[in-house]
Design goal:
Strands 1, 2, 3, 4, 5, 6, 7, 8, 9, 10, 11, 12, 13 and 14 form a 14-stranded mixed sheet that branches. Strand 4, helix 3 and strand 5 form a beta-alpha-beta unit. The chain folds into 2 domains: 174 residues, 3-Layer(aba) Sandwich (Aminopeptidase); 160 residues, Aminopeptidase, CATH 3.40.630. The chain is built from 11 helices and 14 strands. The N and C termini lie far apart (52 Å). The mean pLDDT is 93. It comes from Sediminibacterium sp. KACHI17. This is N-acetyltransferase.
Amino acid sequence: MHLIEVNDAATKKEFLEVSARLNQHNPAYIRPLDNEVEAVFDPEKNKQFKYGTAKRWIAETDDGEVVGRIAAFTSSKYINKGTDFPTGGIGFFDCINDQATANLLFDTAKQWLQEQGMEAMDGPINYGDRDKWWGLMVEGFDKEPMYGMSFNPDYYESLFTGYGFQNYYNQYYYSMKVDDPLPPRFPERHAKFKGKPGYEAKHVKLSELEKYAGDFATVYNAAWAQHGENKEITKEQVIKLFKTMKPIMDERVVWFAYYKDEPIAMFINIPDINQYFKHFNGKFGILQKLHLLWMKYTGVCKRLTGLAFGVVPKYQALGIDSFLIYECGLLIQNKGWYFEYEMGWAGDWNPKMLNIYKSLGGSQSRRMVTFRYLFDQNKAFERHPEMEYK
């Protein structure tokens, strides 16, 4: 058994293919788009390379069979609250059910991270934003993964813990049926705000995305930029994001709340594009794009996923979230457009968001784990601290 650094076309192809082979027997598996995985490791496409570096390997038997892969990365922007030592990341881990092979992959990543000055490694995580490929799935294997969601065989957890990784935090997903009635307090709070002058909730118009990009930035920066590693986002960045999303965006499920025309809350949802991508086997050329447009036009996707939710602090705890969500429900429920709604993950360190998910009537659908491994095993391990609210 030996590891080979991924640095040419042949090893890049093997890096992509080994994941598909190891997951091929699970009918729920959906292969990520090859070009999106490759973009993570392209300095021209991934801004994280401004702040760090990355390396990846495949594991090959003496007979030439590729049986695993792993990536390791560093970023000065990767700072978790409560962590006072440099921490690197590992991700895109796949491996046969063999602890020795897994250990070789982990050891190689560890050695390289130590050479970069790291004292711990978290994983599996993404070399980029937390909305993609973050955490190891430990519950929820019976459902197709949502777009960007990590998906792996169930034995991976034992490979991580067998090496010595510890649970740094849990990531919980919640889901519900789109047509499930919302709890009674939702219509009550909706009625309260509906009767107050100045309050309004409305969904976006695809023809006015630049205007709503500014509203998104306003709410996001007030509600989230103060927490952890989140930094302020610019209107220009959101415009770029919205333009990328526009081909699959459904304006009926992207909502903002306003008070006297000032944005105070947002409820951003999109169709789960994995319901399209599962037909493409990792490819996304012109034929796949035409196929996607046809599926969107014919309403193939019946699953919604939550992308972002936030309320400007001064309006939190007033019930504006219920007002906004109920307005969305009045439009989309009982229309047959969508059947299932699954919300993006919330860490166990964010009980406020978990309570919001529960308040909708959602039930836990999956659990992921972000693990941590301390290189100095004599150092005390501490789990991710709970979020502080202002």
